[in-house]
Amino acid sequence: MPRRLTYLILTLAGAAALYLGVNAWQNSRTLSETEMLHRLPTADAVVFSLDFAQLRHSGLFDNVTGKVIEEPDYQTFVRDTGFDYKRDLDLALVSFTPSATYFVVRGRFDWIKLEAYAKQSGGSCYNQLCHMPGSTPERRISFLPLGRDVMGMAVTTDELAASQLLHEGAQRPLSPSVEPLWISIPNAALARTANSLPTSTRIITSAMTSATEVLFTLGARGPNYQARLEAQCRSAQDANNLAGQLKALTGLLKAALDREKKKPDPNDLTGVLTAGTFRQSDKTVFGEWTLQKSFLENLAKGM
Predict the structure, then answer these.
(1) What whole-number percentage of the chain has pLDDT above 90?
(2) 273: number of Cβ within 10 Å
(3) In this structure, are strands 124-126 and 277-281 parallel, antiparallel, or unpaired?
């Protein structure tokens, strides 16, 4: 055999072995929560995190998901793939950009069944990247493994968009919260997010358009739960103005209840909002609301 051909064969064999080795290593490791977060494009996105494992441990998970009615399509998905978020999903990080939604999730996945499900749903798979049609023509779903128990998924017009999650996305500084639920909203997304919220919540959210970034968290506090706000402003004066606006709006909600001769109901959203407290520290505004378990249960009934 000519020496040049021998070198070529050895080079190709070495490259193939390297690819298989790297691929096997990637699929055998997991990603930390910080690494998962860095895979998402977050530069101009609303970023949402839900720690299902922590919620199961706290008991809040059963209170909420037990009231959710599952659609027939989801029941079919569970039957065909063996994956049920109530049992198999541990952590979900989601990035809502203006043009797409990206997911990086940790759980227990049967990749063979998931690939088969994509194919039987009118999609295809190549080199572990699968894509399939969504509920509308502009919704193309793609997914692939990022680790042995981590999936990257995208819903957008690009049927290969999930491949972007193989590497770090366009970032703004973000760190995971210790709370099981958190959502970070940059200034550019505040306006478009506010329009989709209930009126009582929209009034308060609209006041925060002067903030550069807003972080909401939810966690257990004794027998109840606590929602917290951290709004980062450009200056201490902006923060002082925002704190004043939030206090004033809370006062207006209380006054509206007084005019109707109603007492704040902790099981109602308006009742929760009227109990909010706010304080300023330099360029940051902090807010806190106490949520009773019954309020969250009532909220879940409307899902």
Answers:
(1) 37
(2) 19
(3) unpaired
